[in-house]
Each structure stands twice: as structure tokens, then as C-alpha cells.
Amino acid sequence: MDNEQGTSVLTSGEPTGPIENRWDNHRFATKLVNPANKRKYEIIVVGTGLAGASAAATLGELGYNVKAFSYHDSARRAHSIAAQGGINAAKNYPNDGDSIHRLFYDTIKGGDYRSRESNVYRLAQVSNEIIDQTTAQGVPFAREYGGLLDNRSFGGAQVSRTFYARGQTGQQLLLGAYQALARQISAGTVEFHNRSEMLEVVVKDGRAVGIVVRDLTTGEITSHSAHAVVLATGGYSNVFFLSTNAMACNATAIWRAHRKGAYFANPCYTQIHPTCIPVSDEFQSKLTLMSESLRNDGRIWVPLDPDDSRPPNDIPEDERDFYLERQYPAFGNLVPRDVASRAAMRMIDQNRGVGPLKNGVYLDFHSAIERLGKHTIEERYSNLFEMYERITDENPYEVPMRIYPAPHYTMGGLWVDYNLMTSVPGLYAIGEANFSDHGANRLGASALMQGLADGYFVLPYTIGQYLSDYLNTDPVPIEDEAFTDAEDVVRERNERFLSIGGTRSVDHFHRELGKVMIEHCGLARSREGLEKAITEIQTIRNEFWSDLKVLGTSDNLNQSLERAGRVADFLELAELMCRDALDREESCGGHFRVEHQTEDGEALRDDENFAFVSAWEWTGVGSPPVRHTEPLKFEYVALSQRSYK
Amino acid sequence: MDLALKIWRQAGPDTPGEFATYIVREVSEEASFLEMLDQLNEDLNNQGEEPIAFDHDCREGICGMCGVMINGDPHGPQSGTATCQLHMRKFKNGDTITVEPWRASAFPVIKDLVVDRSPFDRIIEAGGFISINTGAAPDANIISVPKEAADSAMNAAACIGCGACVAACPNSAANLFTAAKMQHLNLLPQGQPERWTRAVAMVETMEEYFGSCTNHGECEAACPKNISIDFIAWMNRDYVKAQFKNVAKASQ
């Protein structure tokens, strides 16, 4: 089960020199495309969530010809919409000591020293521009009575740098990007294709030249050609079946790109979010997040006595274990997500969980309501409390919430260089689809920041470097063999799903896969478990291809057929995740190998041997992938054991 | 619980549809309405009948993708709740539940319970935005917004674009949606420069696709986000004012 190792060392193309000047210098050194020439270029953007919509809109504003694709009926549906808590920026409006350098430092440390310094510094620099941009777009951020912007705190930071719009920040930022996109659609610079799913990346002579798309309502397969292709298709948490991701979130676009040569970086870095509503029954289709912002005012606890069966409000304060406040006095309830999730898991493993299935911990607002009044808590979180009540039938103003860790975000993704270009020239990945900025653990309120940084402020500049070499060249015509072959692959695959004629549904296989992944490649991983998982995944994959039952046809809306393609890709990606987790003999951030932990159960990194990015090259189904590495240099942040005590 | 479901089945946009009746057994009270449909679909797939197509995605009541008529009510019996957040504990063993797609000529059926809501996007494309290019914005705190205005704008901006307001309206009017989208921007200082052109463009595009509002108020009752019908009054005010406003002198 060993992998072929270290065949090449990747270079990020990041600039050198003082870190504060790198992005500026890089922009100056990057080739520009003059305004009159921009209209000669075609760019495809796949996915129109925060990253994709902001990129498509900005590229359109600059004068490029953009084609944007979404499998939703409208760009406003993308799962960015469900981000609740907020977006970070180094504005230092609260005057509490924040700075670009501190946001940079917190993000590197929060990512457990597994991200690229130059990228993270750039992210912190543009964070302020994002707030300016989105405010001007009319995003209704929360305000103080004086009319200026309000901030709150998030995990992993000791300053208040999170801007928010009630518990619907992602919704409002996405609508801002969607509206900017709508403006460009109306101006004719962006051609938008809704209900269209990308099923192949087309590569010719080693570079990306277009995509193949299926119209989900008519089943028509079409090719689209361009000078460059941008993937903004989100993360792959749905490999776990039960996650906080929307039902349709999938890895197909990035996986198809991976199969065409794009390296997949750090697939084992997945985030299990500590505050989700616990599973209640076996038919459950997804998990619902309760925003991390709740940890500003909620206190997490379990009863001291594992056999305490009293209702939570009857348990006196001195018989409760506020375990985060006890174990991490400096950060308390606001420790980063990976730390909070593992702490909850330890409580539940010790049989100290609460609720009917003993699979949760309490998140209690009693003292915050006493201190601030119910009205303030309502203003901050009313929509979250309401959502909780709808799902559980319990009123969190009166009874503590029950929460449990659940898969939420994937830090891994396609490997990209400093320009956000993958290992396939002309193919870019932005937002959650790439691996770039969060290392081994993402801090709360940083996903919105990264998606918009990539889309509004990074990609629109960096893409010029590649495009400028193709001035006055036409995109490869869609009659080219590269396109017709890719179309054939798509058609044959769909026909194959429909013709297997087995006995079990797509969801059946997806659930089985999810069980294996959460057990062996979830919060805690071991060599033994991962090896077992790889064998089990291969078995499920074989059963899938011999016993799948998809009804209907491919010439109209067929949701089972859509899901079959996505689950087929998850079945390959899952194996890569386990191989990466097996290969990384250390614990860092969201990747916790039980063999590598400190005495008190914290993640134990191995900087000497693993301070690098693993970027995997596809070699075929069931064949061991090839690992390439990108060494990580730390010039501005000293590597240290992460402590939140 | 065991339930009988009368569900609208329609193979495509141009084929006539009809109700089909199905029995689902042992539905958990903890299940959401969509999870109950998942369970039915799993049964149908096992029996060799094509599953029912329905739109859904986040299942957290925020993406606006889901939405069906449940016993004649958009999103079902619980007020302020999207279909995905409706749980089966609101139903009883032995109930018969009728499930239909949104009914509006502007929202043609694509298949079964899935409809095409793209006219909503046309309304936004007509003017539901603030025209600023990336990079041109001043520091965010230069724009001071009274908290009350920001809160009202947020109340409007909470619209999830599901289309329940249209489905609930006897005239299939989209005034609540359009008003919410417009007033979110028109209430903020940032939205003032284009306020009057936006009002005209959005209303007139809306009227190309949808029926007229006759103040039934069904939209507000059906809205899963409890968007207030007051926004329609504010939209009407802006539209009327825009008719005799000299936009070149708007600031006077």
C-alpha cells in the first residue's frame, strides 16, 4: 500500500523579498492585457458561488468575454449562501490591536503551519478591500448605533475582526456577488448557463482549452472552448455523505480535472465543525451547522457525572464541566474548530455525551441571556435559534442547545501556484476548490474571505500572466478531437450508469461510503483504520459499478443520474484521501493520527519530515497515485507547538 | 407514521401531468418533509418506478431552492418555514398529503415538482444591483448607515428567492420578491444614485412576466422568511415617484 514518493518538487512561483511587498511586486511583474485586447479572450468560469460569481463579474467588468456555468437554477443558490457567522478582515475598527500581520499570523497558526506564507499574507492584505467592496455593493452588514460597522469574535483569534450580517453573512455576500454578476450578464460581458453541469475538462497539448457540459434539463451534451478555465466548484465534504454541505455539493469538477492532470493537494485536510445539530435518526440526509459565532456567547459543557440524567437546567453550575474553559483558559469557548471538535469527541468517547443518543454536548446561552438580555441574543442569533427549534423542537432560549462535530469544510483541493493556476496550464482553481490558504485547519469566517479574495482581487490580476501569451490566438475549435473525445467519454459514462441495471440506489452507495469515511478518515485516523478503509472503499466501488440501479433516461431531468456521476467520483476521491492520510505520519490541524499525539491528546506535528504540501498525481483507478511535494518555508512565523491554553 | 401522498407527476414541460398516489410507511417524526420524500424515492427506485424530481439543496432554509405546495399551502402548514425545515412531527399518522409544484405561468414545470424560476433572475439583471466595479470602493466606514436603515435593509435582503410569494398569489404576482430585492438597495445610502432608475427597471421587468398585485397579502403569509408586505408599499412609492422625478436632479 506504499505510494511512490517524492518524484518532483513543486514550485509555487511566489515572489521573494519582504512579505509586505510581495503581492505589490508580483502585480507589477505580472504581464498585463491592455483594455482593448481583453475582449479578444474567452474565459470559462465553472461554479458561481462566492469565488466563481465574484471572479466572473470582475473579469466581465475588466472586459473579458466570460462564460459562467452553474448546476443550480440561479447563481444565488450556491452553498456559500449558507455561511452564517461572518467574514474576517484586518480593519482594526474595534481598536483592539488587530493588523494585517496579526490576521496573517493567526491564519498561519490556525492552519497549524501547513499553508504558504506568501498566500496567507496576501489574503490578509486584501481582506480589507473585500469589506470596502461588499459594503459599497450594499451588503447590509451589522451596524453600531453611530452608523459604523460592527464586529464580533470568532474562534482562534483574540481580537474582534469578524464582520457579519445577522447569522446570514454568506447569504448577503453571495447576493452581493450574484448581483454584480447579474449586472455583467445584463451588460453582455458574461454569458450565464444555469442548470448546466461540467463533466469534463478538455486538455489539448498539455493545457486546458475548454469544458464539456451537460444541460441538466434536456440532457444535451455541449462543448465550450476558451483561452482559460477557472474552477470555482467548492469543496468535497459530501464524501462523508452526512455533512453540513448542501445536497448537491460535489467534487466532480475538481476530480475530473485531477484525472486530466491537475494535482490534488492535501486531500486529507478536512474540517469537522464542532457546532452542528446531532444526528437524530437513520433517514437523516444532512447535518445542520450552528454558527461558530454562537461560541461568542454560548458556553459549552457536559455533566460532571456521566450518569447524570437530569434535564440540563436542573443540573447545578458546580456539577457541570465547562471543559473548554477548563482546558484552554486563554481562548476558552473560542478555541479553533479542530481543537473544539476533538475535545467534544473526547467527552462523547468518555460516555459523557448528552441527549437521547448521548451524541452531543451542551451549548448554553443561559448566562449570556442573563447578562445581555434576551433581546440582544435575539438580535445576534435569532435566525439560528429559529433554525434549531425547527429541527429539534426545542427552544434554545430556554433549554441549552445540543451540538456535535460534523464534516463541514475541506482545506485540501486542487494544487495551485501563487497565481492560483493548477498544474495544468490554463486551468485555475479558486475558493474552496483549491488548497491554498488554510493549511490543515481553517479558522472561522475565513472561507468567505478567501473565496472573495480569490474572485475579486487575486485571479483577475494573475490570470493576465498566462493569457498574455495567447494574444490574437483563437480558442481551440469545439470540433477538435480533444472536445469530441471528451464528449464521448461523458455520453458513455452516463449510458453506463443507466445500463448497469442493478438493485441498489445511488444513495445507498453514498451512505455506505460515508460510514467508512467518517469512521476511519474523520476526526481521528489510524494506520490500521485507513488501510481497512481503502479496502472497503474499493469493495463499495466495485459493487457500485456492478449493482447500481438508475432509472429513467439521459435526455431529460434525471436527478439520480446526476448523483450517480458525483458519487462515482467520490468513490475515487475517498481512496485518495485515505492514502494521503496514511502517508502523512503526523497530526496537524484537522488531520489527527492517533499514533501522533501529545500526552494531553493534542495534535503532534512533525515539522522535520512533513513541513510540505502533498500534491498527488492521478495514475488510474485503483493504481497508487504519485506524490509530489511543495516544501513550506516559514520566514515570518516561527514554527511552534500550537497552544490555545 | 404511515402517510398517503398525492403527488403531481409530469414527465416534461410539454406533457400533461397528473396526480399519483403513494403510500409511505414508518416515517420518523424527526424526519424533514424532504427526507420523507427521499424515503419515498428510495422505495420507488426499488420498485422500478422513476423517483420524483424535486428541487432542494441546502436543507437549511437559506438557499431557496426547495419549495412545493403542501395541501395547497406554499411550503406547507408551518408559518415562516421553508419546505426543507418543515418536519414530519407537524403531521399525523394516516394523513393524506397533497404535493404540487408552484403553479404560475411565469414558472413553467420542468418535471414533476421542479419549476423554472428564471424570471426572478431577469428582474435582478434589470436593476437589482449597485453599479460599482471591483476595486473602486472607498473605505467601508466612510459610508455611515443608520442602524435602523441597515436593519430594515437586512429585513428585505433576507428574501431567499424561493418563489412561494408568487405561488401563493391568486394573480401570480411577484411584488413581494421584487419589492424585497429593490428595497434592500433603495433603503441604503449606497443604493441612492440608482434608486429611481432601479425602481422603474425592476417593476417593468416584473410586469413582463408576472401578474398584478391586488393586495391579497397571501404572499406575506406564505413567505418562509416573513418578509413584510410593507416593502411592496415602499416599492410602489418609489415607482410612482420615479415617474415624475427628474433623475438628473435627483439629489434636489
Structure description:
The complex is a heterodimer of chains A (645) and B (252). With 645 residues, chain A is of the alpha+beta class. Chain A is built from 17 helices and 20 strands. In chain A, helix 3 (50-62) runs parallel beside helix 6, helix 5 packs across helix 12 (447-467) and helix 15 packs antiparallel against helix 16. The longest helix of chain A has 25 residues, at 559-583. Chain A starts with 18 loop residues before the first helix and ends in a 14-residue tail after the last strand. In chain B, strand 3 and strand 4 form a beta hairpin. In chain B, helix 2 runs antiparallel to helix 6 and helix 5 packs across helix 8 (230-244). Chain B starts with a strand and ends in an 8-residue tail after the last helix. At the A-B interface, helix 3, helix 5, helix 6, helix 11 and helix 12 of A face helix 1, helix 2 and helix 3 of B.
Features:
heterodimer; A: 645 residues; alpha+beta; five-stranded parallel beta sheet; five-stranded antiparallel beta sheet; B: 252 residues; Ubiquitin-like (UB roll); Fumarate Reductase Iron-sulfur Protein, Chain B, domain 2; 2 domains
Fold topology:
The complex is a heterodimer of chains A (645) and B (252).
Chain A: H1 19-29, H2 35-38, E1 42-46, H3 50-62, E2 65-69, E3 87-88, H4 100-110, H5 117-136, E4 152-153, E5 160-163, H6 169-187, E6 190-193, E7 196-204, E8 207-215, E9 221-225, E10 228-231, H7 252-259, E11 264-265, E12 270-276, E13 299-303, E14 320-321, H8 323-327, H9 337-349, E15 361-364, H10 366-372, H11 374-392, E16 401-410, E17 413-414, E18 427-429, H12 447-467, H13 481-499, H14 506-520, H15 527-547, H16 559-583, H17 607-610, E19 612-617, E20 626-631
Parallel strand pairs in A: 1-2, 1-10, 2-6, 10-18
Antiparallel strand pairs in A: 3-5, 4-5, 7-8, 8-9, 11-17, 11-19, 12-16, 13-14, 13-15, 15-16, 19-20
Chain B: E1 3-9, E2 18-24, H1 33-47, E3 69-70, E4 73-74, E5 96-100, E6 109-111, E7 114-115, H2 119-127, H3 147-157, H4 164-168, H5 175-186, H6 195-209, H7 218-222, H8 230-244
Parallel strand pairs in B: 1-5
Antiparallel strand pairs in B: 1-2, 3-4, 3-5, 6-7
Helix pairs in contact in B: 2-5, 2-6, 3-5, 5-6, 5-8, 6-8
